Structures are given as structure tokens and as C-alpha cells.
Amino acid sequence: MHILHLSAVTNWGGGEKQIESLCYELAKSNPEIKNTILCARNTPFHQRLKETNLDFITAPLKIKVDPRFILRIGIFCKNENVSLIHIHEPSALLSAILADKLYNLPPFVFSKKTSFPIKQRKKTLYKYNYQKIKKVICVSEETKKVASKGIKNHDKLVVVYDGTNIKTKNTETPFLLREKYNIPTSKKLIGNIANHIKAKHLDTLINVANIIINKEKRDDFVFIQIGTFSELTEALLSRIKELNLEGYIIFTGYTPDASNFLPQFDISLITSQIEGMPLVIYESMYHKIPIISTAVGGIPEIIEHNVNGLLAPAYDSEMLSNHITNLSSSPTLQKDFVQKGAKKLTERFTTSNMAQNTLKIYKMVLSND
To answer: Which residues contact 70 (CB under 8 A, 6 or more apart)?
Structure first.
């Protein structure tokens, strides 16, 4: 079996980390299966893969649909006897479909990682219902529910939860947050790891800080935000300045192995307005950092409110603020949350489980094709 994994993203995020983890796990557990990753050339994902021993190829991707990327898919599949193509995100799907028109490719498996609805447009529906897609792997039950509104054949929809590799974790970081940013131990570190994209709704993070710092007059909290900057960053920084929060919210920008900083947080905060299943959930559970999150996407399938974390509706800055101040003053509740979270993680949400469940789908598709 030879699987070609497709990703056409131009940054580095949780989805790319999961591709990497999946290929690592399959190489370890099933060395008879060959996995090759095709990514866009000269991107952070490409640079990351160069530091691994994973098999990968690249192609230029200067425009959304680049003929060179399309040709690379088709030629590689024909020359290397690829058995199945696993498309890991929407931007690569159209390229795969166009390559199939030219080369009659092997069957597709498509991963839907977010709970964004599929737009009810003819071209979009054609793409997601393309006949070569034999299975759609959804990252949560909520994602599956959303996908079912756009994908006609519901038998194609399956749920495979992402996971974290509990055997390769470390806490090495190029610096300590408190030392670099001169944060005294008397202040609680509220950490957020997310790239600066609309889905993560970092305005909610700013609103939470504004309530705690300016309205409640608490000066014992500092908010650390780790993630790649984007066209949204300037407006976020302007809001921070306008609200006089520059000493209380720190944007670090992109930092390699961001999850390694989690043990330096007192609380892990997620403010997303839409999600599939953010990896920071699993990473926080592993590092035993209490989690406060918006109840969006598949998050409530992992975090049970008042059982192993605290949840609030999307955009509800008041509730999130209350959760932070209440949880930070209750070491007993924190300990209870993280113990239950770690147990749930090791039982259900590891990369080993993810890889074996994904492999079952590969075998099912190939046996029926």
C-alpha cells in the first residue's frame, strides 16, 4: 500500500502536525505501508518536513490552483504506483480533482478538519461529492453533522478523532516566558495557542483580558498568545493599545513547537468561534494544564463542562472571564480537571489510536474499490 498525502496550505498549523504524526505512527506500526507527503514548496510545512525522516515531495504553488502542483500529483501517482490519495484539507481537493481528469488517479480519502459548513454552491457541492472520494474522515461528530448537509452519501462520513503522541513529548523551549517577558511569579499566565485566523476569534481573547484587567481591576493576570501573525494582527494589536492592555497581552508570533510552552501556562484558554478539534486541547490535557474554552465544534465532545474543564458559548467574554478568575483561585478544581483530562487522553485520543483507525479506513476503501 502506498498512500499519497496532499496538503496545499502555505503555513504550519495543527492540521500539518497531524499529517506528520499520522505518517510517523504508520511508519512505526505498519512499515509495509509507504507514505509520501506532497506539500507546497518553500512553505513552513516544507521546511518542517526537511527536518524529519518522512518521505515527502514538493511542488510550486504560487496561485490557488497551480498547474505545476496538479501535474506533480498525477505524474507521481503514475510513476510510484500510489494506491490511495489522502487529501488533508480543502485547498488541495480541487487540484486532486483536476489531476484525476488528466491521469485517472486512485481513490481519494478526504479529511474534514473544521466545522465550517459546506457552501451550497454548485461548484462547491460538486467538489465535495466528487465520485473518487470514497470516505470523508471527520475530526468530530459535530464536523460530521455539519458535513452531512453538503455531502449527499452519508455512508461516506466517518469520525476519526485526532490525537497527540504521548511518547514523544518534551518541554524544551528556546526561552522561558516569564524570563523573556519579565513576568513575576505572582501573576497568572493565561495562555492561548492559535494562528491569527478568523476561526480563532482572538478579539474574544482581548475582550476577556479587558474585562479582567480594566473592569475588574485585576493586575495579577498576563495573557500570552502564541501563533503566526496574519492580515488580522495589526487590528488586534491596535485594539490592545486602545484598551491600554499592552502590558497584559503579549503576542509572541510564530514559535516552533508551541505546545512545549504549555507547561509554563497556568490556564490554557481557547476563544474560537468555530472549530473542528484544536490540537491544543489534547496537548493541554497531556501537559496537565486546566482548560477553559468556547463550546464550539467538537470541543464539547472532549471537554465536559465542570468535569475536565470549563466551557462557555462562543463570544461570551463575561463567562470566560468568570471561569478564569474562579478556576485560578481553586487549586483543587484544577487538579481534578487535569487528572480526569489526562486519563481520557491516554485512553482515547492518542496518535496511535488515530493512525490505526485511519488505516482501517484505507483498507476498507481499497478492498471495496
So the answer is: 95, 98, 99, 102
Query: Range of 276's domain?
Result: 177-348
What residues form DSSP beta bridges with 253? 226
DSSP-based helix, strand, coil % in the chain, nearest 5:
45, 20, 35
- Separation between Cα atoms, residue 269 and residue 223, nearest integer Å: 9
Does residue 169 belong to any structural domain of this protein?
Answer: no
> Angle at Cα 364 formed by Cα 359 and Cα 365, nearest 5°?
100
pLDDT tens digits, residue range 129-160? Answer: 999 999 999 999 999 999 999 999 999 999 99
CA dihedral defined by 280, 214, 328, 182, rounded to 10 degrees?
A: 70
CA distance 222 to 250: 8
Q: Which CATH number is 335's domain given?
A: 3.40.50.2000
- What pTM was estimated for this model as a whole? 0.85
Same domain, 77 and 223: no
Q: pLDDT tens across 263-319, in order?
A: 999 999 999 999 888 889 999 999 999 999 999 989 999 999 999 999 999 999 999
Burial class (CB in 10 A: 0-12, 13-18, 19+), 367: exposed
Burial code (b: 16+ CB inside 10 Å, e: under 16) for 208-222 equals bbbbbbeeeebeebb
| Number of structural domains in the chain | 2
| Whether residue 216 sits in one domain with residue 120 | no
CA dist 134 and 333 (Å) reads 45
* Whether residue 338 sits in one domain with residue 354: no
For residues 200 and 316, membership in a common domain is answered with: yes
- Asked whether residue 170 is assigned to any structural domain, the reply reads no
Same domain assignment for residues 315 and 192: yes
Does residue 217 sit in the same domain as residue 339? Answer: yes
User: How many other CB atoms are there within 10 angstroms of residue 112's CB atom?
Assistant: 24
The reply to whether 291 and 208 lie within a common domain is yes
Contacts of residue 63, defined as CB under 8 A and 6 or more positions apart, other chains included, come to: none
- Please indicate, yes or no, whether residues 138 and 208 belong to a single structural domain of this protein: no
- For residues 84 and 107, is the Cβ–Cβ distance under 8 A? yes
What is the CB neighbour count within 10 angstroms for residue 308?
21
